[in-house]
Design a protein that fits this description.
Strand content: 15-25%
Order of helices and strands: HEEHHEEHEH
Distance between the termini: 20 Å
Helix content: 25-40%
Largest sheet: 3 strands, parallel
Number of strands: 5
Strand order of the largest sheet: 3-4-5
Shape: globular
Radius of gyration: 15 Å
């Protein structure tokens, strides 16, 4: 994600989404995974108006431990599902496709969207493969970023 300003673009996309979720009075949870580990950046709660500070502090680099991120998402979303049984849960995965394993789709989500930041002269297509594996929507980041 550090190449071609992808991390900065992903942060801009996340900031845009947090503003939309806030206006809709929705809930938000954010998990970051980089450098061999996954961590909860924002625990599930009502979205707030000001998110620039914590989004700006997100760092990239190292490997992409997708299985660890998905396992943490499964845990966090499972807790949210038990807390509010009828809650509609979506998962948006932002990635540049630099992962090797295709983990199972988290069981506690109603829908998934893979936002693919892969770029470069030789695409490897892992974002598309993951979207097919998860029966998820696949969106190229460039398409989304052109909308705002």
């Amino acid at each position: 994600m550090l190449k071609r300003r992808n991390l900065a673009l992903a942060k801009g996309l996340l900031l845009h989404w947090t503003r939309q979720i806030y206006r809709q009075r929705g809930e938000l949870a954010v998990i970051g995974f980089a450098g061999g580990q996954a961590r909860l950046l924002q625990a599930p709660h009502k979205a707030v108006a000001f998110n620039e500070a914590w989004i700006g502090a997100i760092r990239g680099g190292g490997g992409t431990p997708l299985p660890a991120g998905v396992a943490l998402a499964e845990q966090v979303l499972g807790q949210a599902r038990r807390r509010v049984p009828g809650l509609k849960i979506g998962l948006w995965l932002i990635s540049d496709g630099r992962f090797s394993q295709l983990p199972a789709r988290p069981a506690h989500v109603d829908f998934c969207v893979v936002v693919d930041f892969e770029s470069g002269p030789l695409p490897i297509g892992r974002g598309e493969r993951l979207a097919r594996h998860w029966d998820a929507e696949h969106i190229r980041a460039a398409e989304l970023l052109g909308q705002f």
